[in-house]
Automatic annotation (TrEMBL):
It holds the Pfam family Cofac_haem_bdg. It comes from the Bacteria. Residues 48-254 form the Haem-binding uptake Tiki superfamily ChaN domain. Coiled coil: none annotated. Keywords: Lipoprotein. InterPro entries: Cofac_haem-bd_dom (IPR007314). The keyword Lipoprotein applies. This is ChaN family lipoprotein. SUPFAM superfamilies: EreA/ChaN-like. Transmembrane segments: none annotated.
């Protein structure tokens, strides 16, 4: 058969083969993450970035050992700092209030890595997951604020209730939210904790103490992030997702302090299939970062 007579037949066949190959590659794709809106509609990073940049405060709820979440936190910190041009502050649950002078000295270059890490009680995954954020702050010259209560005080409350803080000296009380604080045990997150820890009569006192310790962290973080943010600034706060899921936890205390703030949230969830947001994960946050359940962990 003459080659020119074969071409009209081969051309559509070739196109069909290319389409089949492309579709097979798409079907075999294994995304490292997917972004969704609160209602489960697909979202992309640029859409999320543009919307978050309009907020006064953004909470990024992480899973502490998830590398994808940590990578996205770094990207978001970099991009929001760039967009806000000097009107950006980073708040971290992972740094406690009493080490704030060290944080300031490190991000301004007065303290080196070794000295900072020896004195600031960093989390075990600091080097891989949080140090890049502080290094970025040094480069771009934005402020980093540690917002969390020193862990020893949360531990005291978990063992003996909020009354354990009454005898603290004044200089130490400066590292926690002003006392007394009111714990709303009806907040959804705290009610869920009661169920998780067995809130029956036999365990009621112990469970209440655990919830009080969580409330101390939430209230302290709300107090200091609100204090750190100046008018016109955007504060990005990184914390465990349980502290901000469902606009609960820290946000409940922040609303009491400053109800006019525009607050947006991101939550990290783990799913077997990230192509569709599980119903249980909808409404957890304004944007939901879905990560495969078998994603490698940082610890």
């Amino acid at each position: 058969m003459h080659p020119q007579r074969v071409q009209p037949f081969l051309r559509p066949l070739a196109v069909w083969l290319v389409l089949v190959l492309l579709s097979s590659f798409t079907a075999a794709d294994k995304p490292a993450y997917r972004l969704f809106t609160a209602t489960g509609k697909p979202a992309d990073y640029d859409k999320m970035l543009r919307e978050l940049a309009t907020a006064d405060v953004v909470f990024f709820g992480e899973q502490h050992n998830d590398p994808i979440g940590h990578w996205l936190e770094l990207q978001l910190t970099n991009d929001l700092a760039r967009l806000k041009q000097g009107q950006f502050v980073l708040g971290l649950e992972m740094l406690e209030r009493d080490v704030q002078p060290l944080v300031d000295q490190y991000t301004t270059g007065e303290l080196d890595d070794k000295a900072f890490e020896e004195q600031s009680r960093p989390w075990p995954n600091y080097a891989t997951d949080y140090k890049p954020l502080l290094q970025l702050a040094k480069q771009q010259k934005f402020r980093v604020v540690g917002t969390n209560v020193p862990r020893r005080y949360a531990s005291q409350v978990a063992k003996g209730s909020l009354t354990a803080l009454n005898t603290l000296p004044a200089e130490e009380k400066a590292w926690i939210v002003p006392l007394p604080i009111t714990v709303d045990y009806e907040l959804p997150g705290y009610k869920n904790m009661a169920k998780m820890f067995g809130g029956d009569a036999a365990h009621a006192a112990g469970v209440q103490n655990i919830i009080q310790a969580q409330a101390l962290k939430d209230a302290t973080m709300a107090h200091f992030l609100n204090q750190a943010r100046l008018d016109g600034q955007l504060l990005l706060h990184l914390n465990g997702s349980y502290h901000s899921d469902n606009h609960d936890g820290i946000l409940a205390y922040l609303r009491q302090l400053n109800p006019k703030l525009k607050v947006l949230t991101v939550s990290t969830v783990s799913q077997e299939n990230v192509n569709k947001l599980d119903k249980d994960n909808q409404q957890k946050a304004d944007f939901v970062l879905a990560v495969p359940a078998d994603m490698t962990k940082t610890y």
